[in-house]
Every structure is written in C-alpha cells, then in structure tokens.
Amino acid sequence: MTTNQSEPGAGEGEDEVAVDSPTEDAIEEAGGAAEAAEGTEPTGPGEPDPIAELAQRFAEIVGAESWSADHGLAKIKVTNADWVSAVSTAHQNGMPFLSFLSAIDWSQTVAVGDPLSDENVEERYELIIRLSSLASDDAITLSTDLSKYHPSIDSLVPVLPGADWHEREAAEMFGIEFRGHPNPKKLYLPDAFEGYPLRKSFPLLSREVKPWPGMVDVEGMPESESGPSTENPEATDGAGVEEEGAGDADA
Amino acid sequence: MQTLDPQAMAHISEVSVSVELQTADMTLNIGPQHPSTHGVLRLVAKVDGERVSSVEPVIGYMHRGYEKLAEVRTYPQITALVNRIDWVSGFANEIPFVVAAERLMGLEVPERAQYIRLILTEMARISSHLIFMSSYPLEIGAATPLMHALRERERVLDLLESVTGGRFHPNFNRLGGVKPAAGAGAQTKKVVQDLPAGFLADTRAAMGKVRDICDDLEGLVTGNEIFQARTIGVGIMPADKAAAFGVSGPNLRASGPDYDLRKHADYLPYDRFDFEVPIGRNGDCFDRYRVRLEEIRQAASIIVQAVDSIPSGPLQAKVPKIIKVPEGEVYVRAENPKGEMGYHLVSDGGRMPYRLKVRSASFSNLSVLPWLLEGQLVPDLIAILGSLDFVLGDVDR
User: Do residue A100 and residue B103 have CB atoms under 8 angstroms apart?
Assistant: First the structure.
C-alpha cells in the first residue's frame, strides 16, 4: 500500500530501462574501436562540452567501457574487474581528492510496504566513486555495476586508504561485500542490526506503522501524470494543499 | 650525604636505557559524551604511556538515516531535513541540495535570490567559524575568547533570523529561489515580502563588528604563547594524505592546496566578488585555526560586496505547483564552512528523490583521525580533535 516511489504501477519497469539506456547504448558504441569519436554522441551535438571532454579523456586513461556527461556529471563506467585499477589510475592522474564512495540501488520492483519475496526483487547496484582535482574544476565519477545476487567487489582501501569508512558504510547500507577490506565492521549501525537499510526492499518501519498523511496526494498522482508532468499546474487540489501545508509547518 | 660515583651512575643510566620496559597498552575510552567531541563521538584509544598507539573512532550514535528519509519525502520537504545535517551552518546545507534539484529541472534562479542565498551562506560560514573560535581555545584552556566570539556570532544569527525566521534551521530555500522573507508585516501571504527593512544597513554594521572581533581574536588567541605552544607543529597533515582521505575545506587548505569550491564549483555567483582564499603552509593545528580566522574576514568582505551590489527583482522563479524533478542524475558540491558538501541526486521523474547521497564534509574530515592521531601525545589528542572542527550531525547524517 504505502510506497516510497512516487509512481506506483506498471510504468516502473520501463523507467528502469529508460534510466539505463544511454549507458547501454554507450556500451555498444565503446565496443567499437573508435570510442573517442562515437562517445560524444550522448552529450548532444554542437559546441565542445568541457565535461564531455573530461569524461572522454578519463575514459581513455582508465580504459573504461563507456562514459556520459549529462547535467555536468562526468560519469565513467568500468567493469568490476577494472574497478580498483581504474580508480587507482585516475587517482594518480590528476584526481587526488576522494569526494565520496557510495552505491545506488536501481531496483524499483518492490515499494515500501509490499510483501517481500527475494525472488521478486530485481536488485542491482551501482557503485560510484567521486574523485576531483585540486588544481582545477575537474571532477569525475567512476561507476561499476554489481550483481543482484553477489554484490561483491575488491576493496579500494589498499590503494586508497580514504575509502575505508565509505566502503564500510556502503557495506552495511547496501549489503555490498568489499573483498580485502581490513576492517569490515559496521560503521553506523549496531553490530546486531539485520538487513540493509538503503536497499529499496528494506521497509521504512515508521511508514508501515503510520502511513504518511501525504499518501493521499501520492495516490492522486497518476491522474496528473497524464499531462505534461512538470509543467502542469492544474494537478489534483489535494496535492497543492499538501504543498502549502508543508510550507507552513516548516515556517 | 654520600658522594656519587660517576662511573656507577653511568652504569645505572646505561642499564635503565637498555632495559626494555614492559608496559602494557592501556585502552582509553573517550566519549561518547565528552565536551570536546562536539556531539556523541567515541574514541577508543590504545595508549602506550603518553603516546597514542592507535585510535578507533566509533560513530553512528546520531545516525538519523537522512538518505533513506529523503526517499519518502517531496523535494520541498527535504530542505527542512538537510538543515539538520550540520546544524551550526544549517543554511549552507540547503544550498547544494536546491541547486542540484534546480539543475535537473533547468530552473533559472533570479539574481536577487542568488545574492540573498550567497549573503546568508557566508553568514552561516561566519557563525560556524565563530563557534570554532570560541570552542577551540576553550578546549585548549582559554575561556575568554568564547565570550567574545559568541557575542559577535549572536549578531550574525540575529541577521539570519531577521530574514529567515530561524537561527539554526532557516529552511529558507525554495526550488527556484528563496522564501519571501518574514520581515515586518509579512503576515498576509499574498504580499510578497522582501528582505526586512534596514537589513542591508544592519549587515554592513555587523560586518564591521565581525572584523573587529577577528582583530580581537588575533590578540587573544593567535598571539597567545600557550595557544601557540599547544598548536604549532601539532597534528601535521600533509596535503596528499588529506586529499586521499577526502579532507576538505579549511582543514585541507591549511595543508597548502588552494582549493576552494567557491572558486572551483559553479553554484552561486561567487565569481563576481573579490576575495582571497587563505591557505596554510604546515598543515598543523595552528594553521587550521589561522585559515578559519582569515576566512571570517573574507566572508565579511564578500557579504559587504554583495550587499552593496545586490540587484532588485523577483525572489522566486516560476515553478509548477507540484514539483517533479525530471529524470536524471546530478552531483552538486558546495564549499560549506566545514568543507565540501555535496548531494548526489538521482531522480526518476517523480516528486521524491530516487536516491539522495549526502556527501558531508565532517565525515571525511573525521575519517583521517586514526591516521592523524597515531603516535601523538595524549594531551595533543584533544587539540588535534578540536582543530578538525567537525559536527557529529555532519558525520553521522
């Protein structure tokens, strides 16, 4: 019943694909030899985009599968096997600053409150690390996909000690195993804690016990979705009231 | 009294030097509730005599799970959440989040709103650094600066409050601009309120006072022999180590790198103002203190420049009544008082974020602690800890 997604219903599977599709296209492109020429495609035609150039340059340096440069985010996708060497190479080639390491759970099949069944949960994780230069504005995000069944990858700590806490956090929050981590204990959570809170399949208990009053508005959403979504000012009244209510409460 | 035989003495001293004293490591538990830990941080220190042989920070006592909470809240609600991450600079926390959402939505924020954001962010920086200026000398044993620094901080908080209505948690940013200010006569919702009357003049006056307190602190703290003895050459952090651990902000700049996101990231119009980025040379506790003191002056200068040149115009871009953020992924970072604060925002096109990764400065700043404290003297432990200027809410999120 309760949901932590704003769009319950059938469209979710497609959403997931839509999010992925640029990457998958890019993987095919990178399969060809001349990835430099074809790689610029996802960023659009015309003027040279410094972010795209940066992403392309680092994709070559670390030997990446593909890259993208949407919304100013230079994102470079590497394979699991290349993860440690790619991060280490980028780190030593003008990206000394470790901004953060974290993960994203891309499964959208189970919403908060739905009955859980492991077979139905299509979990897939993306591990991301953000490195920046200290001499310029440049910064890149390296990412790699982890499987649903065995989210496991080599630890970065031997090459990048600063990844220690970040990996411990990702491990306890997403259940990702970092092989070779020197101190694989829980970071935030109590030692006896069970489950991985930031997985989409992990229910938010307070929402189970007492559904959010704003639920009414979430239910109303599909109607407003038929129109041009972000531009449509005449969505359900209830939602508008809720917005103002939130503002009042904040003030 | 017997005369001492020099030969016998030499023998004794030789013996005492060559004999390996068997001393067991002692485990010293600091915290979770210790005044110098700025929240609830526990340090499990193994000490060998007066030396710290290893330290393991235990964090998570204040973990509130903001990243999960953000997944079940609408964008306008999240600004109220992120205020509480680093509570001594609540306003500054909001900025990278709203900018991230605005970037995905393609919103153009009106100039005046951007200037107001910038002025209030710098005020948050001054207030945060003045907390440091009061608490850090206190930890080292000087109680007087606290009175002076907190008094001036109150002035800045009054200004923040006059605009936003909140001292700590303004919740003032809206997607596309800022909230119409709660100035005099702002009771009727229909009337669009701007900055409260006299705000600009009051700000100019207050910034003069802030500069004065910096001069006072130079005399009270910087020139203080005891303070110097406790901080100079203590807790040295080399720049490459700092970068590899993600240490950012004044802690990083004290080690040398001239890296300030106000110069390097495009989130507020800082490029229109003339200011210096203070850096240190040695990366010790003293440099970390000096960098922050100078940053207060620079922030005051930025505020005065912004107040002098603030354009008129609307405070809010046109946004739909129901805010949905188009699909996409973006990372926006900002130079917060504590360092780089960023939000990696993933939207699936809905009213709530699909994933919001909060990159908080204190988390990374603190993660260098085990390395930094190894081999240090126990009395220096608190001096080093305090010099990192972290807030546990920012560590635990």
Answer: no
